[in-house]
Amino acid sequence: MPRAGPGAMLQSHLIAWGCALNYYPAYLDLRGRLALLVGGGQVAARKLASLVAAGARVRLVAPELADETLAQLPHPLVEERRRAFASDDLEGAWLAVCATDDEKVNRAVAEAAEAARIFVNVVDVPPLCSFIVPASLSRGELVLAVSTGGASPAVARRLRERLAREFGGEWGPYLRLMRVLRGRVAARGRSAEENRPLFFALADSDLLTRVADRDAEGVDAVLARVLGPGHTLADLGWSPRDLEPLAEEAS
To answer: Is residue 10 predicted with pLDDT exceeding 70?
Structure first.
């Protein structure tokens, strides 16, 4: 049997000793970057959707594709290789995701990625992973991620569900509005120190509640109180429909 790479071996020993793995949390900018995805089943279909949604170029390697995966193809960001995994599939990749139920394939991908110094996630096999994917949900620009470090994916799932109840679809338009307002305030030419109290005043106001209620007049009132004239929704090019909540995106 081929030997596991040093990273995977160390991780296996830590798990065997009952030691917690301290992961470094990060959000990756995958726009235009190549990600290798090995596998074509239902799980791979979900991974494909999330990678494409992040703007990644995806090299999809699998002898066969499930209907859920085929439904997403062809796609301008996806390169298909309808065959078994080979180590040269990793060429140019920034990271790799392996979503198969074949132990030999999983290990081969993990070892090849380790040798190439490419971060790899083998779905549901933590000892072969150099990164794990947390349970997450998105509300537009708000992204909340939960991880138990592999201790209990079920608990992570329940925590994500709790967050989904607390952070509703109103956070999407709310943060999009905050981004627009930040740009307008910054364009005044004042220093960051001078602008900071305004940004915190907006964050501490009832603007989120007004957006959640789709109360356009209430939003205008908050903006007038904090920022002064010239910052109504109409001034920003918004209509009341822009306050509509966004659907949840989860993984």
So the answer is: no
